[in-house]
Amino acid sequence: MGLPLLSTVLLAPLLAALAICLLPRESRDQIRLIAAGAMTLATVLTLYAYAAYDTAAGGMQFTESIPWITDLGVTYALGVDGISLPMLLLTDVIGLASVFSSWNIEKRPKDFFVLLMVLIAGVTGTFIARDLFIFLLCYEVVVIPIYIMVLIWGSTKRVPKEYAGIKLTIFLLMGSAFMLVGVVSLFLEAGGQTFDMAALVEASRTGMLSEDFQIFAFLLLLLGFGSLLSMFPFHSWSPDGYAGAPTAVSMIHAGVLKKIGGYGLIRLGLLVLPLGAKFWAPLIAALAMINVMYAAYIAMVQKDLKYIIGYSSVSHMGYVLLGFAALNAVSITGAIANMVAHGIMASLFFSQIGYIYERTHLRSVPELAGLAHHLPRLTVGFMLAGLASVGLPGLIGFVPEFTIFVGTLSVYPVCAFLAIAGIIFSALYILRMLAKVLFGPRVERFAAVPDEQGADLVPLLLLGVFLVGFGLFPELLMGVIRSGVTPLEPLLAQLSGAPTLLGGGF
Amino acid sequence: MFDFALTHAWLIPLLPALAFLIIGLGTRQDKDTSAKIAITMSALSFLLALGVAGAVITRPVVMADPFVMKTLWAKVGDIELFMGVLVDPLTAMMLFVVTTVALLVQIYSVGYMAHDPGAGRFFAFLSLFASSMLGLVLSVNFMQMYAFWELVGLCSYLLIGFYYYKDSAREAAKKAFITTRIGDFGMLLGILLVQLTFGTLDFLELKALLPTYIWETGGGILTVIALLLFIGPIGKSGQFPLHVWLPDAMEGPTPVSALIHAATMVVAGVYLVGRAYFLFSALPVVLEVIAWVGGFTAIFAATIAITQRPFKRILAYSTISQLGYMMLALGVGSLTASMFHLMTHAFFKALLFLCAGAVIEAMHEEADIFKMGGLKERMPVTFRCMTIGVLAIAGVPPLAGFFSKDAILAAAAEVSTPLYILATVTAFLTAFYMARLLFVAFFGEVKPDCPAQETNAWMRWPLVVLAALSVVSGVWGHFAGFGEWVFHGPITEEHISWQIAGTSVALTLLAFFLAYEIYVAKRWSSYEISRRLGVLYTLSYNKYYIDEIYTVIRNTFVDKFGAVLYWFDLHIVDGIVNGLARFTGGLSGVLGLAENGQVQRYVTVFYCGAIALVAYSLVFAWLVLSVLGGAF
Predict the structure, then answer these.
(1) Which portions of chain B are predicted below pLDDT 50?
(2) Is B631 helix (H, G, I), strand (E, B) or coil?
């Protein structure tokens, strides 16, 4: 098999980072061109993989495997299936868009793009790793650039950026600490031979992991992945963190990094520790419902655009958690699709907010008004992202939400009912924000702000294509995800009788 | 040729969608080209709709055996979501109504929007609306209907807020979207329950499954489902208590009010109940709820319309009232009467709104009818069209409203006397407020600085066509056997009950007479009457304070509660996080004292330690010795 496709996708940003390191500080043009070139390459290759992926065959494809630390059973093993491929696509598309959202960065562009490339490579690695060790390694790689980027290029509003940065980092590290304990205990319990995920799944299937162990280990993973997914009450890093972070970090963080939580819950939590997942599912469902409603309510009283979208993303993650908790093929398909949908819309939102903030240094809803008069393209960007958040048909959010609702209503009627009521509240806070910021009388002070053009327009176009494309033709997305979820059906069927917390009395 | 139209019915919504894309991405700056594109596509859709109607009649396609084409849109798990077209006489009628009104309104808009710099955008939105509405009409299942239902809601939002620089338009758009969203929530729940109960959302499959299901399990859960589904139409079709958005929707350009908020989109709710009538009609309890919601809305809105002053707001409450009529007809079991009224209403209400647009434009945006007067001299064509519209809605024979309203009254009389009385009183009120509108605005003295003059040809001809339709559609529907095509259950005999028709016509004439005496002859002072009515007048004039009640609810239960939760998030959830951080910090501070880098302190600690050690050794030695000493 010629080109190692996934390795290229993974290494492209890393090599770009290396190349940028070798350039002088002043050559901003070359630096950003290299970054854009590397991400374009990665995106094109990922799109190729997405198109070439054989959904009928399913399973891991484009696999690569090189033994690495043989004593520990660590292998550099990559591959994508119907669950990870959409996440990889999301990573590269948002990564590419985030490069263009950082196009005009003035302060230390060299350092910025090096860190950005490392960050993207780290996220990419978590989604394509087939080895748990590589997964954790890539995850840890992500944490460091984010902290530095918030500190140097972040902004101080409600909370100082130093606070936001350290809060973000501590939550991520705490999460990874729990995860690490979980993973190590899993490694030992499964025989201490291998970190290969497929082997761990096999160990679980043959009954090497006792029910008690699964329940214990899943709780650890839930604490780790749950706080990454901003599950209540571990969500408070998310709005503060996004508010402090520079645009590109907000985009990547809300767009894909957060999704590692949901991805991990499915890939490790459900596949390796199914009994644990089943046991804790009712708790997750209850917390998910709180996520949806609680964060939507809070989003309604926010003033800062980034806080609105921050709380909104906490609310949307509630749907993902709910879909996971219902533990059936439909709901899990919905959860994965909703991660993709939210990734696209949240990063579009943050890129548009970043654009206006870069030029006006305003982000507060009461201070912005009537932007539609002067910035029609920005208006289109905001409207597309907003309407997708509201779950409008024809845009990316509709089918995933509908799927989650169908999949969960019969399993957790009360939680699902309240979560569905969330569609009213999301309309409330999104439309209020759009109305205030975009519409209303002309405001002369914004007359001098130029509309998006050239490189600034790329995030809108790129993300917009997916927002509308997957909205009008949902089968393009759902078909791939289905090929990833179908193999889980026997497992999910076995689980339906397994014991749960409080007998599932939610 | 008819068969070509039938098998290509999917083009009917796609053509305007194409217009939206071309205008939106390309020609939106050029309003003439944009208008041409929009009108061409609408005209093609209209021709196809005529072809579909022809096919339905010649083939024939009947209610029991519709023509269906569908394609897989998305598949999740084992649930397949389809998009497609379902054509039966009901669809054909709706396609005809929607494409006709849409085409006429677009032609009218060429004149109306001639001086608006955003005209290109306007035509793009109108095309998107036409596309979504036609997609809704052709729906094969609940999911498709919900999807297009949301899209027409979006178009309504975009068009109400078309004058986005006006705060009032912006607020009205938001209100419309959110209020109907509340309805959509109920409807979505209903749809999900349908999926879970039957495993399908397809109208035809459900129709086939339903009788067995009811026979086996009864109607318990079905009643819940149907009531939930009905919440959607309550929102969309402006039924009490979710009607509040519709009068505010008049903030949009008037052609929009005519097309969306009078003739087409607002009847989507009625259409939904009609489309799923196999479900609703099987559940007597639900039918009764529908009938009473409709009946109450009809009279409730009519009592508000009587005291309003802005031209379009009177028409808006009239629309709510007429939608109530259609719901009432469905509730008393007559799909035919409801759909018949839907059709005639679409024509005469679009006519009335387009007349309103002509008048308000001629009056330079003055909307208060009491600031108009004598317009019949200045705008003779508009006046004649308006008069036809008023006579049609009031139900004067042989105009359109007479036949359809009579059908509703007859259907109501068969089922329930209270509902019949309610509907008849509403008919009286309708005739009165419409006559008031006509007399105050068009009769009397011309006001001194009145700028009004007749409108241009672009706006005039659509009025004339709609006026013609308002005259003939009732007679045509009655004698061409509308009820033999669009019906549910046994075909109802087409006959006019002279008792019911006579009563309603007599009441209409009485209402005209009273309005004439008050507003033209000025025999009684309207001011005096309103003063005598006191509280009743105040309530009606202030629309029963429903909006104010909602504001209070929203402020307390949404915004205040949100603020409380935010406080909780900042001080409790985050407080615990920060508290933990502080605790850890404090702990490490204490532990860190030992390592602060000062050599002096290290030495001190070292010596203290050494002294302690020595002291300890001494004590230990002493203890050992004393013990040992004791042994010796």
Answers:
(1) 632
(2) helix
Q: What is the 3-state secondary structure (H, E, C) of B316-330?
A: HHHHHHHHHHHHHHH
Which residues, 6 or more positions from A161, have their beta carbon under 8 angstroms from its beta carbon? Answer: A150, A151, A154, A155, A244
Write out pLDDT tens, residues B28-48. Answer: 888 888 999 999 999 999 999
Between CA A294 and CA A301, with CA A300 as vertex, the angle to 5 degrees is 105
Cα–Cα distance for residue pair A405/A427, rounded to 1 Å: 17
Distance CA B392, CA B431 (A): 10
Asked if B270 contacts B320 with a C-beta cutoff of 8 angstroms, the reply is no
Rounded Cα distance, A314 and A307, in Å: 10
Q: What pLDDT, on a 0 to 100 scale, did the predictor assign at position A314?
A: 92
Residue B72 one-letter amino acid: L
Q: Are A466 and A400 in contact (CB under 8 A)?
A: no
Closest CA to B239 of B313, B289, B177: B289
CA A129 to CA A272: how far, in whole Å?
15
Look up the pTM and report it: 0.89
State how far the Cα of A398 lies from the Cα of B631, in Å rounded to an integer: 92
Measure the N-to-C terminal CA separation of chain B; round to a whole number of Å: 130
Nearest-by-CA chain B residue for A387: B154
- A410, A435, A438 ranked by CB distance to B196: nearest: A410
Summarised one tens digit per residue, pLDDT across range B196-232 is: 888 899 999 999 988 888 888 877 889 999 999 999 9
What pLDDT does B630 receive?
A: 53
- What was the pLDDT predicted at B491? 67
- HSE of B422, CA atoms in CB hemisphere, 13 A: 25
What is the rounded CA–CA span in Å between residue A132 and residue A186?
10
DSSP letters, A81-120, are -TTHHHHHHHHHHHHHHHHHHTTT--S-HHHHHHHHHHHH
Question: B67-76 and B79-87: which strand pairing?
Answer: antiparallel
- Please report where in the chains the tokens 């008393």 appear, as a residue: B332
Point out the least confidently predicted range of A186-195, A277-286, B101-110: A186-195
Residue with tokens 């001086």: B115
Counting one residue from chain A and one from chain B, the pairs whose CB atoms sit within 8 A come to: 134
Question: Cβ neighbours of residue A27 under 8 Å, at least 6 residues apart?
Answer: none
Contacts of A431 in chain B (CB under 8 A): 157, 174, 177-178
Query: CA B344, CA B117: separation in Å to the nearest integer?
Result: 34
Other C-beta atoms lying within 10 Å of the C-beta of residue A104: 14
> Contact, A433 vs A299, CB < 8 A?
no
Rounded to an integer, what distance in angstroms lies between the CA atom of residue A295 and that of residue A428? 13
Two tokens at B494? 């087409």
B561-568 contacts at long range (C-beta below 8 A, 24 or more positions apart): B561/A297, B562/A297, B562/A298, B562/A300, B562/A301, B563/A301, B565/A294, B565/A297, B565/A298, B566/A297, B566/A298, B566/A301, B566/A302
pLDDT of residue A506: 46
Give pLDDT tens digits for B130-149: 999 999 999 999 999 999 99
Closest CA to B226 of B293, B276, B292, B291: B276
Q: Which residues of A265-281 are buried (b: 16+ CB within 10 A; e: fewer)?
A: bbbbbbbbbbbbbbbbb
B74, B166, B188 member nearest A420 (Cβ): B188
Query: Are B75 and A478 within 8 A, CB to CB?
Result: yes
Within an 8 Å CB–CB cutoff, is residue B70 touching chain A?
Answer: no
For residues A84 and A80, what is the distance between their CA atoms, to the nearest angstrom?
Answer: 5
The rounded Cα B78 to chain-centroid distance in angstroms is 33
Report how far Cα B600 is from the mean position of its chain's Cα atoms: 81
- Which helix H or strand E contains B632, and what residues bound it? none
Which run of H or of E encompasses B77?
Answer: none
pLDDT of residue A459: 92
Name the average pLDDT for chain A. Answer: 89
